[in-house]
Write a structure and sequence with these properties.
- The protein folds into 2 domains: about 60 residues, no CATH class; about 50 residues, no CATH class.
- It has a 6-stranded antiparallel beta sheet with strand order 1-2-3-4-5-6, with no helix packed on it.
- Helix 1 crosses helix 2.
- Helices cover about 40% and strands about 25% of the residues.
- With about 140 residues, it is α+β, with helices and mostly antiparallel strands.
- The site of zinc ion (ZN) has 8 residues, from loops.
Length: about 140
């Protein structure tokens, strides 16, 4: 990606500036509509909203990303860890780089064979570490 010129702004800087400005204007005009004394508190409320709302949006996205990329044990066949997340028919799972498929359920990491047969492989112990799942 090309670096912006010395006089230019990156897209994210422009977006942040417009975002902040929009909330400041919204806050000030909302406050001003109530009373001239509320323009400054409105500005501050706009500043607060501009700061807090990205967190409200980004934290769930981060949690979703963590759900898609949990810390997984090495795969059964070759010990690789190059998992790709998939979602299919209301089920989620992970496909290893070597082609094996896995599912996570109730703290268990299951091998999925032939598309729908699930075999026990690893489970989390009380401290969250992966241990062999034997009955
Ligand atoms: Zn593998």
């Amino acid at each position: 990606m090309a670096r912006p010129g010395r006089h230019g702004f990156t897209l994210i800087e422009v977006v942040m500036f417009v975002w902040l400005l929009a909330w400041l204007v919204a806050g000030a005009s909302w406050g001003g509509a109530q009373s001239p004394w509320l323009v400054v508190p409105g500005l501050l409320a706009g500043l607060l909203a501009a700061a807090v709302l990205p967190l409200v949006i980004l934290v769930p996205l981060d949690l979703l990303e963590r759900r898609r990329r949990p810390r997984l044990p090495p795969c059964f066949a070759r010990g690789c860890r190059t998992y790709a997340w998939w979602w299919r028919d209301g089920r989620e799972g992970w496909r290893c780089g070597c082609g094996d498929e896995y599912a996570l359920r109730d703290g268990r990491f299951l091998r999925v064979v032939d598309g729908d047969v699930e075999l026990r492989y690893m489970r989390r112990d009380a401290r969250g570490r992966w241990v062999p799942d034997r009955e």
